[in-house]
Amino acid sequence: MSSAFPAELQPQSKPRARAAWDVYAVVAVGGTLGSLLRYGASLAWPGPWSTFLVNVIGCVAIGVLMHVITELVVAHRLVRPFLGVGVLGGFTTFSTYVADAVHLVFEDQPALALAYLAGTVLCCLLAVLVGVLAARSVARLFGRGDR
């Protein structure tokens, strides 16, 4: 079968990279730990505001982590997959955030659902910025500038 596209525009097959099983393992372990932490938070404070709080705290932590491992230290190659993708990815939960909003709609609170949806995204974006700025400030306080 011939293609309508010239050869230089056709996708080139690349050799597949070997699976990094150690990365998969640390993501799985980290995700388990983060999910257990989130579950504990939902037991301590059930409802959509628990999800909101977990997501905001997780986003602050992501901001701190990313600044530290990209600007301050040379981290082991498994730190980001374990902490960033695994623990904090398992801890934060945007699927539950959507489910919480749906429940608010079914409870005849559509305005609150919209405010919750928009407010969570806005607060989480600001939380990442706060985390980065806080980590940067603490680093400067202790005499550790950006690399």
From TrEMBL:
Chief localization: membrane
Residues annotated as binding Na(+): 89, 92
GO molecular function: fluoride channel activity; metal ion binding
Subcellular location: Cell membrane
GO biological process: cellular detoxification of fluoride
Gene Ontology CC, one term: plasma membrane
Ranges that cross the membrane: 21-40, 52-74, 81-99, 111-135
Domain of life where this protein originates: Bacteria
Keyword Transport: yes
Enzymatic reactions: fluoride(in) = fluoride(out)
Keyword annotations: Cell membrane, Ion channel, Ion transport, Membrane, Metal-binding, Sodium, Transmembrane, Transmembrane helix, Transport
Activity regulation statement: Na(+) is not transported, but it plays an essential structural role and its presence is essential for fluoride channel function.
Bilayer disposition of the protein: Multi-pass membrane protein
Function as written in the Swiss-Prot or TrEMBL entry: Fluoride-specific ion channel. Important for reducing fluoride concentration in the cell, thus reducing its toxicity.
Family indicated by similarity: Belongs to the fluoride channel Fluc/FEX (TC 1.A.43) family.
Name of the protein in its database record: Fluoride-specific ion channel FluC
Organism in which the protein naturally occurs: Saccharopolyspora shandongensis
Lineage summary: Bacteria, Bacillati, Actinomycetota, Actinomycetes, Pseudonocardiales
